[in-house]
Amino acid sequence: MATKHCPLCGENTLVDMQGEFRMDPPPNIPGGVIIIPDASWLHCRSCGEDILSHELDTVIGQERYRRLGLLAPEDIRGVREKTGLSAVDMSHLLGVGEKTYTRWENGRSLQTKASDTLIRLIDRNAEMFAIVDAEREPGRDALIGRYFTELEELKGSNRLAMAAHGADMSTEGLEAVRKSLGVLRKDRVLPS
Question: In whole angstroms, what is the distance from residue 37 CA to residue 187 CA?
């Protein structure tokens, strides 16, 4: 069996290994020993270190995400791409730093379960996050109040505003909108 130079200890005792790779994960990863059948890696007979191939490291990483119940980096990137957001926009929406979010997408760090849950919710209902984000906007209530106060003026002088706010709407449709606005005001989502 040919040996190679070990980059860790400097000895010429690194050998190719094939077969079942076993690894004790850290205590935060449940499920006991990780076993990967039909694996290839390098093992140093002097220092005892294993040097993993990119493929083996990828398989172990996928198992780690599976055991923790977290989205894998490619799934996180898929959610972002599906919503059409940039990584910067996604990080802002999640309330984390841009570098932190990028590390999750690149697999360099694990997201928390709370962040993982938010990403899954964005995947299911991205519009709701935009609504919640808009609700946080300072001065939102004053803006909405001004909008409704000025609505009558706009309807009288602007044909586009008239069309957008019921001039061409059926009576039933207009009543449904008024009823919805009344409910929103009653629930204090809109100012009186």
Answer: 59
pLDDT digits over 9-53, tens only? 999 999 999 999 999 999 989 999 999 999 999 999 999 999 999
Architecture, CATH, for domain 73-135: Orthogonal Bundle (1.10)
- Give the H/E segment covering residue 40: strand 34-44
Ranges in the chain annotated CATH 1.10.260: 73-135
Q: Which two tokens stand for residue 40?
A: 């290839």
154-172 pLDDT tens trace: 555 544 444 455 445 556 7
DSSP, res 109: S
Tally of CA atoms within 13 A in the half-sphere of 21 that contains its CB: 22
Joined together, the tokens standing for residue 192 give 């009186």
User: If you average pLDDT over every residue of the chain, what do you get?
Assistant: 84
Burial class for 122, CB neighbours closer than 10 Å (0-12, 13-18, 19+): buried
Give alpha helix (H) positions in the chain.
Answer: 54-68, 73-83, 87-94, 98-106, 113-135, 140-157, 159-164, 171-186
Are 68 and 55 in contact by the 8 Å Cβ rule? The answer is no
pLDDT computed for residue 187 by the predictor: 61
